[in-house]
Design a protein that fits this description.
The protein has six helices and 23 strands. It has about 350 residues and is α+β, with helices and mostly antiparallel strands. The protein has a six-stranded mixed sheet, with helices on both faces. Strands 15, 16, 18, 19, 20 and 22 form a six-stranded antiparallel sheet that branches. Strands 13, 14, 17, 21 and 23 form a five-stranded antiparallel sheet that branches. A hairpin with a 2-residue loop joins strand 3 and strand 4. The longest helix has 18 residues. The chain is elongated. The relative contact order is 0.13. About 5% of the residues have low confidence.
């Protein structure tokens, strides 16, 4: 339980975190406090705007629309990386959500499924609307994602919260899907990954430029040595049997393809004997020390006559304590086919930065 930050305190926290902040109109007094409580606060909610255009999206979130008056959040995250302040009080962003989720946020415990809408989230959460169409294909630039991570970390730091106080709208209110869409160099927008990035920032001073673990971090190395890429080169000709319809971690000269990195670009290439028309899907994932994982985007290849050659790519940031791994799944062309198939060779090549 915490008293909401004043407008001045919120602004100072964001600036200390290295955010590029724009004060929009009379944001300090623009709120919905006359319609309900504002506080005590317990966390932050991440949204996407379902809009395009930075100026028009900021105006929308400030003014609202016929069905929902503004402000629609506290901050708007532009694709430029700028953060536009539109409110410092109660805002129409979270709506009614699951009380069990709120309790998990308060205790910073794993989130249950959001299957109820029985609790006023507008009183309990800060909200950021990140400018994005929300159609699953509109990309969040790395600088925009980084700004959102810093925004969440700044508020958590100011209140003494951990990353467990950060949730997505889709984790709070049944039926919501935001945030979603690809992040530049980072796979799909994943809330577990986002929380990990916030947690990484919180390990460092607010002024740090190295703690956010965002896709853009390798472009600003902390030393000359950090800017030198290292090679990934793995090759494995051991026959591996893959059963249908089950994800299987594929060792390529070892299960852990990479550890101790902050950013990487990698390609896994496999040679397999599968029936023509069958499907092979593959993806990289990051295995964390606590047993949880971040899963990268799925790539699909179709089997051909003879040997099938398939490649799978991923690029993005990674926490040094995480282990980068690769997994595959096989779907036969015929639904009643239960036969296993063989992967006869696998390669992993790429670059990484420490």
């Amino acid at each position: 339980m915490a008293t909401p930050l004043s407008a001045s305190a919120l602004l100072a926290a964001l600036k200390a975190e290295g955010c590029q902040v724009v004060e929009y109109r009379d944001w300090r007094t623009h709120n919905r406090n006359h319609k309900g409580a504002w506080g005590p606060v317990h966390g932050v909610v991440i949204h996407h705007t379902v809009s395009s255009g930075e100026d028009s999206s900021v105006a929308l979130c400030y003014n609202g629309h016929a069905d929902l008056p503004g402000p629609l959040c506290h901050t708007v995250g532009g694709k430029s990386g700028k953060l536009y302040m539109v409110s410092a009080g109660r805002a129409n962003h979270a709506g009614s959500g699951d009380g069990d989720v709120l309790q998990a946020v308060i205790n910073e415990k794993p989130l249950p499924a959001d299957n109820e809408a029985n609790t006023d989230g507008n009183a309990r959460f800060y909200g950021i609307e990140i400018v994005n169409l929300g159609n699953g294909t509109d990309t969040y630039p790395a600088v925009q994602y980084d700004a959102a991570v810093r925004w969440a970390a700044a508020i958590c730091r100011a209140h003494g919260w951990g990353s467990g106080s950060v949730i997505g709208h889709k984790e709070w209110q049944p039926g919501k899907v935001d945030p979603r869409g690809p992040v530049e160099g980072h796979g799909q927008f994943d809330m577990d990954r986002f929380r990990a990035d916030v947690a990484e920032r919180l390990k460092h001073p607010a002024s740090s430029s190295t703690g956010s673990n965002t896709p853009s971090s390798p472009t600003a190395p902390t030393s000359q040595e950090d800017d030198v890429p290292h090679a990934i080169g793995r090759y494995d000709t051991t026959d591996r049997t893959i059963v249908p319809r089950k994800w299987t971690t594929l060792p390529i000269d070892g299960v852990d393809l990479l550890t101790g990195a902050r950013y990487y670009q990698a390609m896994a290439h496999i040679q397999a004997v599968v029936p023509p028309g069958s499907t092979i899907q593959g993806r990289f994932y990051h295995y964390r020390p606590d047993g949880s994982r971040w899963t990268g985007p799925l790539i699909e290849r179709i089997g051909t006559d003879g040997s099938t050659f398939a490649d799978f790519h991923n690029a993005g940031s990674v926490v040094p304590s995480e282990k980068v791994r690769f997994e595959v799944i096989y779907y036969p062309a015929k639904s009643d086919d239960q036969k296993s198939v063989k992967i006869t060779a696998a390669y992993c090549r790429g670059l990484y930065w420490k």
